[in-house]
Design goal:
Distance between the termini: 61 Å
Order of helices and strands: HHHEEHEEEHHHHHHEHEEHEEHHEEH
Structural class: alpha+beta
Largest sheet: 5 strands, antiparallel
Number of strands: 12
Strand content: 15-25%
Length: 458
């Protein structure tokens, strides 16, 4: 199948290249010929003013010699008989007498083929008859640039054929080698690539093997994610005593011992941030959770609010939670939702002053769930930059993740994240989670409208 696809693509591309390149090359040849003959006609017409003034042989000889083409021996003038003066020719004539007479008789310009090229014959009416100006156009001038054009077209054609064969070869590999993908994914998983998955496609036996492999990989990811969440949670719990230490250090006044204490506290805070950042960044992306799996968002939010309430009480923050009285099922793992809530609530504590209140509101509809995290701080000056992946600065007091964890969670369900102004006066982060499988943009807009109408009616 792989080589058959390559042969078909080679044949089709070759026919297309020939069908377009050959006519285009012929057009280029015709354009070059027309350009050369048009220039010759222009030079011939330039002798008309001189012929209208004089038909003296000496004067015409000087005019021909000083012209652009006459100096190269490419111009000739055929003057008819005038009175007692017989007909004569000036320059280097190449056209036959028959062609000259036919041009004089018809009174129209014509082109005749001569050895080595072409001649353009331009008639000019005089009081005593019709003079004919002859311009010789060499074959090299008629075909000027044609060879280069053919070479360019040939090069483009060869490049297209090579490119099409390469693409066809890659497509053939993807079509006939699903087993190699399974082997590669198994090797990657063994080397620590925890995000390695196999598309569940191909023959039935390979599809079943891919399903089993993906299930095993998901189980490994969940086990490692639980360990990393535990490390991150334990590190978060250190923030409360660190806050007390920082406040006590600030009241020590000046002196070497006080300065050393403050430096030690700052160092310890940076180390805690490093642990959190390492645990979060090392967390692998998992596949979209299937139907029937997931967690209770209300239970997870209650648990995380209980965790952060200790630090909120120490800093004099008023914390409020609403909409978590009843179970709210969503199709995401519990560990991922907990990590997202920790990121949102951690941002409130890191980027607002002590005593700043915050709230978490959960709104549930048939097909979607909205989680609103609001605070009474100064708000977010640049929401678009805050939502950018990897936009965190990594400065002291920040794990450098921004809202990337939250955004990945929302996109895994087909939802999104919005940042705006809250009713408390500060920032509001709206986490939109779809309960069904991810849908298109038009379908999501319809669901959002239904949820907004439901929320506005409350």
């Amino acid at each position: 199948m792989r080589w058959a696809l390559v042969k078909v693509c080679l044949a089709v591309t070759t026919m297309v290249v020939v069908a377009f390149a050959v006519p285009l090359g012929l057009v280029v040849e015709e354009m070059a010929r027309d350009r050369a003959l048009s220039n010759a006609e222009r030079h011939a017409a330039g002798m008309a003013p001189t012929l209208s003034i004089t038909t003296d042989r000496a004067e015409l000889s000087r005019a021909v010699a000083t012209s652009e083409t006459g100096g190269d021996g490419r111009m000739a003038v055929h003057v008819p008989a005038v009175g007692d003066t017989g007909a004569f020719e000036v320059g280097d004539p190449r056209a036959g007498a028959r062609a000259v007479e036919a041009t004089r008789k018809d009174g129209r310009a014509r082109t005749a083929e001569v050895p080595g090229g072409f001649v353009v014959l331009q008639p000019t009416a005089l009081s005593s008859g019709t003079a004919v100006v002859e311009i010789y156009v060499p074959e090299a001038e008629v075909s000027n640039g044609v060879t280069t054009a053919w070479l360019v077209l040939a090069g483009v054609g060869v490049a297209l054929v090579i490119g099409s064969v390469a693409v066809a070869d890659r497509l053939g590999v993807r079509m006939v080698q699903p087993a190699k993908r399974l082997v590669g994914a198994a090797r990657d998983l063994g080397e620590g690539e925890l995000g390695a998955r196999v598309p569940e496609e191909g023959p039935k036996e390979l599809r079943l093997a891919a399903v089993a492999f993906n299930s095993m990989a998901d189980q490994v990811v969940r086990l490692l994610a639980n360990e990393r969440e535990l490390a991150a949670d334990l590190s978060h719990r250190l923030r409360t005593p660190l806050t007390v230490l920082r406040l006590n250090a600030a009241s020590l006044g000046d002196g070497p011992a006080a300065e050393q204490t403050r430096t030690a506290v700052e160092t310890l805070e940076r180390e805690v941030d490093t642990i959190i950042r390492t645990a979060r960044d090392a967390k692998p992306q998992t596949a979209v959770v299937g139907a029937g799996a997931g967690c209770d968002a209300a239970e997870v939010i209650r648990d995380r609010m209980a965790f952060w309430s200790a630090l909120a009480e120490d800093e004099g923050r008023e914390a409020r939670v609403a909409g978590v009285e009843r179970p709210v099922r969503i199709p995401v793992p519990r560990a991922e939702l907990a990590a997202a809530m920790d990121a949102l609530l951690g941002n409130v504590f890191r980027h607002t002053g002590e005593g700043t209140g915050f709230s978490v509101d959960v709104h549930s509809a048939e097909d979607a769930v909205i989680v609103l995290v609001s605070d009474a701080g100064e708000g977010i000056a640049d929401p678009e930059a805050a939502l950018a992946r990897g936009a965190g600065s990594g400065a002291d007091g920040s794990t450098g993740l921004g809202l990337d964890i939250v955004r990945r969670l929302a996109e895994s369900t087909g939802g999104d994240v919005r940042v705006g102004r809250s009713v408390l006066g500060g920032a509001e982060v709206r986490l939109w989670l779809q309960r069904g499988s991810p849908r298109g943009a038009g379908s999501r807009r319809g669901h959002r409208g239904a949820v907004r109408r439901r929320l506005s009616s409350r």
